[in-house]
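Following the same procedure, backbone shapes were mapped to integers, yielding the entry below.
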Amino acid sequence: MFRPSVDNFDAAIVLGAMIRPDGSPSPALTRRVARGIELVRQGRVEHLLMSGGAVRHPTPEAHVMRDMALAEGIAPGRVVVEDQSHNTIGNAVLSRPLVKARGWTRLLVITDACHLPRALYIFHRFGLAVHPAAALPAHRPGWEWYGAWGREILALPWTILRVERAKIMERVIR
């Protein structure tokens, strides 16, 4: 049961990750969804907004994420799907109208720890005041984990350029 308090959130936006060729979730996707389910079960989050389109697989990541949450007993009315985004910028831009339409103000964003700094920057720049919730591996991280941190560090300057260009385009369109 959801119990409102200062530590509770209207929704957690769970960011997508790779789906394997056979349609099964990658470890990153599994971690992120598991973290969202955990927070719902703890009564800290009312809704899960699954965000991710069809990137490397014809099935949108958000559909796999929704199915995982439903299979774990999360009520369908507590799971919202954004299934068109192809990257973190898209996650923020396309989640924004869903958040606004539902009147959600207290938000978490769930992703891997290494991705959180970049995700927080993107979501804040697009007007979503999200708080971080890291999806951590169940075991001691290996080289793959450290490689992901390196990738995120290298991706940050390019992300800043893309976000700021998108913000300029938003102002021009208005």
Observations:
- Residues 17 and 94 are 16 Å apart (CA to CA).
- Residues 1-5 have pLDDT under 50 and may be disordered.
